[in-house]
Structures are given as C-alpha cells and as structure tokens.
Predict the structure.
Amino acid sequence: MKKLAIYTLGLLLAAASTSCSSGGGGESLVEATFTTTVSRADVLTDLAGESQMMIYRNTENSISKGTPVASQLVNSGGVWKGVPALKLNPNETAYFWAAYPFNALATDPTAYPIAVADQVDVLYSGNYVTATYEKPEAALKMRHAMAIMTFNINSYVQGTLQSITVEGADFPIEGTMRVASGKITATEFGSVTHACNVALGASNPAPSLFVIPVGNTLKEPVKVTFAVSGKSYSCTLPTSAMPALNNTQYVYPLTLTEQGIQLHADRIAQEDLENEPVAPEQTDYYGVLKVVHSNASYTVPTFAGTNFSGFAYWGDGQSSPLGESVSYVYQSAAPYTVTFDLWNATSVQFGDLAGIEEVDFTKF
C-alpha cells in the first residue's frame, strides 16, 4: 500500500510538471501586450478612443515567410491585447505587425484591402516588433498609409460646400497594402465623391480627403469638382501636384468667386505628417473689374500692386491666370464681358480703348 501511494504521488508530480511547462496548460505562458503611438495624432486618428485593429503574428521576421496568423487587437485603457490572447512560450520570439482598422477579411498582411470611398485613416506599423517570454510588451509606431488632399478654399461666394469629386482615368480608388511597408498597389481606378457640409465664407474649415498615393504612375490630369449650394465648380490638378507619398498631406490653395474656382498651383504645400502642420497662407485684398468690348482680340490692361495676382475670365467660357497672357484672341468678333478677379491690385492702366463699350469699377 505504501508503494502504491508513493507511485500515485509520483504520477501527480509528473502531471503537475507537464501542465506548467511551455505548451502544457498555460500557467507559465505570458501574454503579449502592446502600446501605440501615431504620427501627427493631433489632427488625425490617434487610436486613443479606438477599440480594434489587426495584429499579425509570425515565427519568421518577414511577413513573406512562414505562415502569419491574423487576429484582433483590442484597446483597454491604453494597453492593447489580442483576442484571443497572444500567449508566448519560454524561449520563443514572436514577430508582430499591425494595421488599423480591424477587418475580419484582412487575413493576408501583404494584401490589406483599401477603398478610398471608405474615407478611413488607414494605419500601418511598418517593420516588425518582437515580443518574448522575458519581454512580452512591445511598442507599435503607427503611420498613415493614405495621402491626404486638403482643399484650402478662400471663398468670396456664400454657400454650402456639399461634395468634392475627384476623378481621373488612372486615379486609384481601391488597392491592397503591404502592412510591413505601407506600400499600396492600386487595383481599381476612376472617381470618388466625398460628401461635405461646410459653410463657405471669409473663414471656413479646409475639407480633406484620404486618397491612395499615386506615386509616379499618374499620367493623366485629375479633375476636381466642388458642389456648392447646387452649383458645380471644377478645376484640373496637374499630375505633378498629385499626392505621391503616404503619411503626407497635400494642401491645395483655391479661390472661389462668382466667376469660378481657381487653383494657385505655385503655392501648393506638401507636409510630412511626422512634422507640425503649416499655417495656410492668407489672401489679401480682393477686387473685381469688368470690361465689355466688341473686339476679336483683347489686350489686358496693366495692373499694379504689392504681391498682385489675378485671373481673367474672357467671356467665352475660358480663363487663365494673369501674367500668362498679355492678349487674348477670340474665335469670332462679338460683344464679350471680360471679368478680372484681382488680389492686391491698387491701380489699373488701360492702353488702347478701341472697341471698349463699358468698364465697371464698382467692385475694384
């Protein structure tokens, strides 16, 4: 009987030893946890109030090797934990990558799905972080995968901005992202419309869109249309002005008047989202001059003023910045009303007055 008792005790000790070993029952396993920081969290997603994102675990230090396992990461008081828990064995090194937001279908870290229509600030962790049994805590530095187009509209028209439509033959609207680098491969092209409700006036917020970076693949110009209180105003963005990099904001200064909307291409700003935002440049005194004439061509008067700039609307549906054309040739002779949108113009001098029927200085 004594021998049986000793034998039974030996079995119990062996079982206890097995249950505490790595992979036995979990008592000696530790849970991997994460903290996060986000570049320029002051203006975009900061994850502080968000609850879920993707986490990818692998036994290799590359997402292209082995078999990465995707699961859910949940925020609890600033500490992120896996659901189910991400347990670590002794002597184990686990490699992790993360992406926001959580998407149950995004099981492949080399092809995380993205759609511009969702208007989501997609975040990615970049290179792997490690967690071990001895050091189970890891810090994820999240970056913005999308580029941001911000439209700084200086409006002289009262109304409500209802939507912004961006369209182009090779403008990407869907794609897949490689979580380890943030690189996005476009899969669909076309147009996207972003609904707005922004009151335009002397001071108004600058609406923004999250877009897929075009890199150097864009060949065709992109058209942007602004719907304002039932009217549409369009301008063209040159390919060189389109967002090429992720984690970067592109600020487009535009002026909206009764004549139309104009892009100030020479003042487009590019901001790395690792840095502080740049204050938008303000436009100074605004005036309008209208000239009615009946000539087949029209010579632009001479304007003067410090930091002067302006646009000419020729009366036949065409327009151009002042400074590019000294004269304008029409397809046929007829009465035309030329409207000049002017900034910081302090004087105007006319040359030849032949064919000029009326000059309106009331808003100059």
